[in-house]
Design a protein that fits this description.
The chain has four domains: 107 residues, Rossmann fold, CATH 3.40.50.140; 177 residues, Topoisomerase I, domain 2 (Orthogonal Bundle); 118 residues, Topoisomerase I, domain 3; 113 residues, Topoisomerase I, domain 4. It is built from 18 helices and 14 strands.
């Protein structure tokens, strides 16, 4: 009989754990896995039918129940645990809030079999490297992190109850006008995300362009040609007088020239949010698909755990060992790096995970290679290269009485850009001018232009705004752009996100009922409750009640205007 049954969150992780433990002589161990959550929250049966009359009562904590969502895994793992006569179950799920909640579900199953006081152990690791697995095995914990469990429970319960209530309200209001219309979903994170996109679209649509003019000159100093422009002029008559002045001269005089050395710091150690945003820009892929790639690389032993808010390396981190795995991939061919690591650390730490770093050499291709190489290059750029130095130049040249300004830049030292070239600035140097020097006028033109609205948000932009507004977590934020597209509220146009008619109608309708239904501030209050639960300052049931109390009057306001809401949404539902 086994002394331990280790339960991992995914099969590939279980296979690695089994191989490592067997290699080190631990033979009385059975390793199995689930496929994510065994259980989920659901509403009690009386709310299976969607009725407007039930919605206010639905918004109560006691209407939740925990149900088995993966019956196959529940039964299979249960059989394995039933064979564990005298030993212990070891929870080896991911080392984050969701992994802890899955661990809690496993403990429920385990204690249903072994008794409600049965002991278990928790195994925590942040990569699938051999020494990390052995370290985790040698430091098994006696309990779960209950703060993580309660926070994850609160998030899951609150999102389900409020999502169910408001989704049913919106859907049923539209169906009173349009038979057979589909589901119109609402979520406490989804809706503020949609509002961010809609607000930008409103700004673009309401923008009034304004014409302006400027003088541009092509100038030559020695053998180098460069451009200089006047400031924007809002009066066409003034602009025409300026161009006549400039056309009267064949040469210009340098009035001012200055250079500034600017240090471009190396990238910080990789955390989830900023890495995903950059990878969206680099690959053009959705953030959700990129997170799945990162997860596969972790499960296959090529990356450390990809969900982390940490951007500083722990004391004693073995940089050279990871560098060897990167060097063998060919990424560093022809690149000079320092012999000893000197990482540039940030200030953020989630207290549980290191930054993301390569743990093995990935030899494949495709998007997996692109993602792995990004982390490999970022790791080396951070720890084994120097900051870059950019020289910024500015000049003022007078041509026929018109003052023109020119700007340029060039890299004095490429530094980390030699290995991490993704966002390397373009070099557009000016000649090194002397005050009083004469420059040749090659061409003079008057340019007419107009002001432009801000661009639509890219997926990377949305993720940045979500993080600044504390919408979602590092693990969940990448889900929302694709979710909004799937639910018909947003479409992708090239690299931008554009709201559909239904998306705009939903946000504008809810804003007129009560703006708190779609603003990030409302969700931020609930996030505060979650943090208090995690720290043990607030009981889970009290926090859930407080959170639901915020949304109950909002639901009442919607119910009071149910016909008006249905009318507003019906037209766009027909066009869906």
């Amino acid at each position: 009989m086994p002394r331990f049954v280790v339960v991992a969150e995914k099969r590939s992780v279980a296979e690695v754990i089994y191989k490592v433990l067997r290699k080190y002589g631990l033979k009385e161990v059975t390793v199995t896995s689930v496929s994510g959550h065994l259980m989920d929250c659901d509403l009690v049966e009386r709310y299976d039918r969607w009725r407007l009359s039930d919605l206010l009562e639905l918004l109560r904590p006691e209407n939740m129940r925990l149900v088995v969502s993966d019956k196959y895994a529940y039964s299979r793992v249960g059989r394995v645990l039933s064979n564990l006569r005298e030993g212990l179950m070891v929870v080896a799920t991911d080392n984050d809030h969701e992994g802890e909640l899955i661990g809690y579900e496993l403990v429920i199953l385990y204690r249903n079999i072994r008794g409600h006081t049965a002991e278990f152990r928790r195994m925590r690791f942040n990569s699938l490297e051999e020494d990390e697995i052995i370290r985790a095995w040698q430091n098994l914990e006696n309990d779960l992190n209950w703060g993580w469990v309660y926070k994850a429970q609160l998030r899951r319960s609150f999102d389900l109850i409020t999502g169910a209530a408001f989704t049913r309200l919106l859907t049923l209001s539209a169906r009173r006008r349009v038979n057979g219309s589909g589901v119109i979903s609402w979520g406490p994170v989804q809706s503020p995300c949609l509002k961010i996109i809609v607000d930008r679209e409103r700004v673009i649509r309401g923008f009034k362009p304004r014409k302006y003019w400027y003088v541009t000159c092509v100038l030559k100093y020695g053998d180098i040609i460069f451009k200089a422009n006047s400031g924007n002029v809002w009066d066409k008559g003034v602009a025409e007088r300026l161009i006549q002045d400039a056309l009267s001269a064949n040469v210009g005089e340098v009035l001012d020239y200055a250079e500034e050395r600017v240090r471009m710091p190396r990238p910080l150690p990789a955390r989830t949010d900023d890495s995903v945003r950059e990878l969206v820009r680099i690959t053009g892929r959705s953030s959700h698909s990129l997170m799945m790639v990162m997860e596969r690389l972790y499960q296959s032993g090529y990356l450390s755990y990809p969900r982390t808010e940490t951007n500083r390396y722990p004391e004693g981190f073995d940089f050279k060992r990871r560098l060897k795995a990167i060097a063998s991939s060919g990424v560093l061919a022809g690149v000079e790096i320092r012999e000893e690591p000197r990482p540039r650390n940030g200030r953020m730490s989630d207290g549980a995970h290191p930054p993301i770093y390569p743990t093995g050499t990935y030899a494949g291709g495709g998007v997996e290679r692109a993602v792995w190489e990004y982390f490999a290059r970022r790791f080396v750029a951070n720890a084994f290269t120097d900051d870059a130095l950019v020289i910024r130049q500015r000049a003022v040249v007078r041509v026929g009485g018109v003052e023109l300004r020119a700007a340029g830049r060039y890299l004095e030292s490429a530094g980390f850009y030699t290995v991490f070239p993704y966002f390397k600035p373009s070099e557009e140097p000016l000649p090194r001018l002397l005050v009083g020097a004469v420059v040749e006028v090659v061409e003079v033109r008057l340019v007419e232009d107009e002001t432009r609205p801000p661009p639509r948000l890219s997926e990377s932009d949305l993720l940045r705004i979500m993080e600044s507004n504390e919408l979602g977590t590092d693990a969940t934020r990448p889900l929302y752009p694709s979710l909004l597209v799937e639910r018909g509220f947003v479409v992708r146009e090239k690299k931008s996100l554009k709201p559909t008619g239904l998306g705009e109608a939903l946000i504008e309708t809810l804003k007129q009922v009560d703006e708190r239904l779609v603003t990030p501030e409302t969700r931020r209050i609930v996030e505060g409750f979650m943090k208090s639960v995690e720290r043990g300052e607030l009981q889970l049931d009290v926090a859930l009640s407080k959170a639901l109390d915020i949304y109950r009057p909002l639901l009442k306001s919607c119910l009071a205007r149910i016909d008006w809401i249905g009318d507003r949404l019906a037209m766009h539902v027909r066009q869906r």
